[in-house]
Amino acid sequence: MVMGPSGGQSPEPTVGPSQFTTTHWSVILDAARPESPGGVEAFGRLYRDYWYPLYAYVRRRGRSPHEAEELTQDFFVLLLERERLRGLERSGGRFRSFLLKALQNFLANEYDRVSARKRGGGCTVIPLDEVEAESVFLADPSVPEPEAGFERNWAFAVIANASANLEKELRASGKEKLFQHLRPHLQGDAAGRPYAELAAELGMSEGAVKVTVHRLRQRYGELPRAEVARTVGSETEVAEELRHLIEIVSG
Known about the structure:
The chain has 251 residues and is mainly alpha-helical. The chain has 12 helices and no strands. Helix 2 packs antiparallel against helix 8.
């Protein structure tokens, strides 16, 4: 998404700040460099994290599920072409805005050319699961404009990535069971199980459970900021971008 805590002692999950040394800009640039063997793998992670907002945008532009799948893949292939990335290091700005603008340009100008190149052979990226993609799209609330839908899906992707990163941290420290039990309380879910009940099951005191939830909430709040920091051009934009995404999710 190991062992659980025992002996009634409070576990100490990792809750310190996480330092990211790469941005989404640098991931794309590294992936485009043949001498960067780890770049393509990092690009694949970026693709897995953010393909859905782009897929949903293409669908809302009237394309069929199969067309949207191919177009999303072809667009990411385009990002790997070094000649298309000149000036990207200087451009900065918000990564989501860059991606949306680049996708809009691709849909308007590039589809026929890229499709012809694919028929003649070329690089590929991780395939999408069309069935899964479409099931998520059909469950997605309708929005008035494709651009608004992209913004909304991007915001939820950032949150989902933060949650996944927190789970990875706890799994790495052998506390996956703890995370699964306390997950409903990270966002103050009133439907979560009572602390006393969780304490008894986890072999902890109720006070220790409360402290752990507090720490996990702090970390859960730090991780979206860290993810956002990888998607903007400067530190000064982080708070503004984070507020923007929170407003979208809360609206």
